[in-house]
Amino acid sequence: MVPMSSPLSINDALAGEDAISQVRTSTGGVHWLASIAEENGRVTIRRWDGSGITELTPSANVRSRVMEYGGGAYDAAADLVAYCDDVTARVMLLEDGNHRALTQQQARFRWGDLHLVPERRMLIAVREDHEATPEAQTEIVALDLDGDNADGGRILLTGADFYAGPRVHEGQLAWFQWAHPNMSWDSSEVVLCSLDDPSDARVVAGGQGVSAQHPLWCCHGQLAWSSDETGFWNWYTDDGDDTLAWTVQHDCDIPTWVLDKAPVAAVGRDLLAAIEFVDGIGVLALWQPSTGGVTYPLPGTASIESVAALGDEVFVVASWPDRAASLVRLSPTGDREEIVPSTPSVGAVVPSSRWAPSLAGPVQSWFYTRKDLHSPPLLVMTHGGPTSARDSAYDRQVQFWVSRGFAVLDVNYSGSTGFGRAYRDRLKGQWGILDVADVVAGVKDVTDAGLADADRVAITGGSAGGYTTLQALVTTDVFAAGMSSYGIGDLRALVEDTHKAESRYPDSLIGPWPEAEQTYLDRSPVTQLENLRTPMLILQGLEDKVVPPNQAYAMADAVRAAGKPLALVTFEGEGHGFRGMATRRTALESKISFLQQVFGMEHSPDVPVLDIENMEGRQ
């Protein structure tokens, strides 16, 4: 790759590497999911058995659609591999080299969070029934590994709004659950019962105002789980007599957006390998419950995506600040081997973590800049969610902007995860207020330090991040340009057209619906368009059901009426999120051309010149 002093090309910025995730171990070897860039992101299972890597599902797309975002699309145990095939909408089993369907091809049920129980010839899964009304019904079911499961699986647990993380050990079934109007990070419970008598259940941890999640069986049969009862997601285990706790002032777990296993694993006879977030950086921590000792065997990571163990060996999907993710094998002696390696990118810019004072307390951001840039234009990025976060992992598109002469500020505004419950809870009832104040605070911190040009600050985001972008443009005068990709302009769309998993999400962020309808209106950018006086690039899919195109047209009209530079770029066949490579290319080319023109920068010769209205006299 070219040194970062040279502009990163559009091709390099969009180039896909085979992303890896969700490492699992079994007697058959080490497994993981690989998203194949050259096959439009098709996801397959790969296995390493000590002698080489093989692909196990060459004709499948291994993906779950439970909770819309999916997760838990496969599991491996003993010599078995079970997986959800998105091509056929079936759950499949790989056994003795043969693939066979465990479920019928139909549209009623969705399965995810798969968990094999070989000794019972059983596959436990979270199942959604989409014929139920008024919303999909979530249950935990058992699929017979030797049957056709024509009924979609035998129901084990029903009644809760949401189930996740079913795990079995010696006839005991553990899981976690939550109920409307909570999200799992608001209030959730870890529950335990007999697999033979699920009606006899007891709550192990969690409850109102506490998020307990991701139960895990340790090697001695103790149950471990995470809970944020101290204000941070920490790990606990029950040794039969006492509850042992690893309590630190850091989050050691992640929110349940998808039904994948948490980045945690039981190692050997007395270790728990987990992620620990320190100043936004995810590091691998080994906790020994019997002594309370903690060690950190893998320095230099940006985050930890998943962890598995085989005996005393640990396998980690780790992301890095200067290169793509890799699959790392750690031996008990500390030896390290990269099963799926990655190579450092020459000249990659590693961000610094910055904290800025804001309305509800300090706010964290990742700041990227080159040493040879003096008072460069600043691009502020606002992540989606909004209850998610950005880490410092290598990101080609961030590197693209830095290579083109921009500084980048990636803001983990109030509500972001990885900084404890108080930080996460700040956004309750304050979405559209605190997130905007936080991005403004981050900009002030950087520009006051002379690290970027205060007169050339742009803000960009998509979906929920697009909402923060639009809200910042109609309520502040800090930004000299804005770029919205399918940004939420009307908050009512979040409750009128959404799915079960997020149907009550706005209750905590804004207020209960419809009682708080006026608040939804007051904080919707579409009701404040008279204040939209900033040059804007608006990118919009014409098939978007969450943010209908008419919202984009209304925003464009407002910018046009104010006489400000405007470019509206629409895409046929694209919905809420851009997936096609041609669309992604056009979107990135439009963004760089737009900002270079609006900020009076030299135009990149490898990028088509975007047609921008009202640019007369600004060149």
What keywords describe this structure?
619 residues, alpha+beta, eight-stranded mixed β-sheet, 15% helix, globular
In terms of per-residue confidence, which ranges show pLDDT below 50 for 5 or more consecutive residues? none
Percent range for β-strand residues: 35-45%
Distance between the termini: 33 Å
- What is the overall pLDDT average? 94
From the alpha-carbon coordinates, what is the Rg to the nearest angstrom?
24 Å
How many beta strands in the DSSP annotation? 36
**Overall morphology:** globular
Q: Please give the count of helices.
A: 10
Strand order, biggest sheet? 29-30-32-31-33-34-35-36
Tell me the major beta sheet: 8 strands, mixed
The percent of residues in helical segments reads 10-25%
Structural class: alpha+beta
Verbal overview:
- With 619 residues, this protein is α+β, with helices and mostly antiparallel strands.
- Helix content is 15%, strand content 36%.
- It has ten helices and 36 strands.
- An eight-stranded mixed sheet has the order 29-30-32-31-33-34-35-36, sandwiched between helices. The chain has a four-stranded antiparallel sheet with strand order 1-2-3-4, with no helix packed on it.
- It is globular and about 75 Å long.
